[in-house]
């Protein structure tokens, strides 16, 4: 059996296992229905340049954004936080927030024109060292240039948040190092875009140590972690927002379930796997 055939078989098996988990998670949702609240979606890449689950086909992303726009449920993150805190009226239908992580070039080149066409606002959490140095992200992810980041900002649908400077995992570094990571990212975004970021996302959604969590709280209005679920009204810590990852293997039926706060069991299983996967990682 050649390598291509082996690779295809493994991919097919992985998709089959993934679909089975989604079916199981959907059944779990029927037993325990998601609460009312705000769903925060997380994307990474658009354009299918890499055969990884976090890289969506552009046509799929376009269809998703068209559906969200037609629903009238998309709000920017600041509006969502006001609703969650009770400082703004609760809408009839639960709101949706769109976010991205990292800062790969396809965000500016592929995703932003789609977001702009549909009028969908999005937060991009930037790992600033990659933009500074032109350093590729894993799986051949070319970084945005700062010029491209500014052009994306000019679209009017983009807000930048921090994702640390070097994409450091904040549960395994000293508070002094973490503070430097946070401050460097804030300074670089402010210098390049003219506005300091108000929002933060933990790299790989790894929860921090208590001292580092305090550093994040002192610097940002919100911080995002893992958790495929809604953020309930009146009971959400804005410094521990749950986000639902949208993946290449999510057919529209699964996308819609995640939009409505479902498939939490899938996230719990993924989180258990990731704790093992990232045990020795630092970024």
Which features would summarize this protein structure in a list?
283 residues, alpha/beta, TIM Barrel, 6-stranded mixed β-sheet, two-stranded parallel ribbon, 10 strands, 46% helix, disordered N terminus
Could you walk me through the main structural features you see in this protein, from its secondary elements to its overall organization?
With 283 residues, the chain is of the alpha/beta class. The chain has one domain (36-275): TIM Barrel (Alpha-Beta Barrel), CATH 3.20.20.370. It contains ten helices and ten strands. The strands form three sheets. Strands 1, 4, 5, 6, 9 and 10 form a six-stranded mixed beta sheet that branches. Helix 2 packs parallel to helix 4 (105-118) and helix 7 (175-193) runs parallel beside helix 8. The protein is globular, with a radius of gyration of 18 Å. The model is unreliable at 1-17 (pLDDT under 50).
């Amino acid at each position: 059996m050649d390598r291509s055939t082996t690779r295809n078989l493994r991919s097919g098996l992985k998709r089959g296992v993934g679909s089975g988990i989604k079916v199981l998670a959907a059944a779990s949702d029927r037993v325990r229905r998601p609460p009312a609240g705000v769903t925060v979606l997380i994307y990474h890449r658009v354009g299918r340049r890499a055969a990884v689950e976090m890289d969506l086909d552009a046509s799929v992303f376009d269809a998703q954004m068209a559906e969200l726009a037609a629903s009238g449920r998309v709000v920017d993150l600041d509006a969502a936080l006001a609703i969650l805190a009770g400082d703004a009226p609760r809408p009839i239908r639960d709101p949706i927030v769109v976010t991205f992580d990292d800062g790969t070039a396809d965000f500016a080149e592929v995703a932003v024109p789609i977001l702009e066409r549909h009028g969908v606002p999005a937060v991009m959490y930037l790992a600033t060292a990659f933009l500074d140095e032109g350093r590729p992200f894993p799986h051949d992810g070319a970084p945005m240039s700062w010029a491209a980041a500014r052009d994306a900002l000019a679209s009017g649908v983009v807000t930048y948040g921090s994702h640390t400077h070097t994409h450091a995992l904040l549960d395994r570094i000293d508070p002094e190092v973490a503070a430097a990571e946070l401050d460097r990212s804030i300074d670089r975004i402010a210098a390049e875009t003219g506005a300091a970021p108000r929002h933060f996302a933990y790299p790989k959604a790894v929860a921090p140590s208590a001292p580092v969590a305090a550093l994040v709280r002192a610097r940002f209005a919100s911080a995002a972690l893992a958790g495929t679920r809604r953020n309930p009204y009146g009971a959400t810590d804005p410094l521990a927002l749950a986000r639902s990852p949208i993946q290449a293997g999510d057919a529209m039926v699964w996308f819609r379930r995640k939009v409505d706060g479902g498939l939490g069991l899938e996230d719990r299983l993924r989180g258990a796997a990731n704790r093992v996967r990232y045990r020795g990682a630092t970024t």
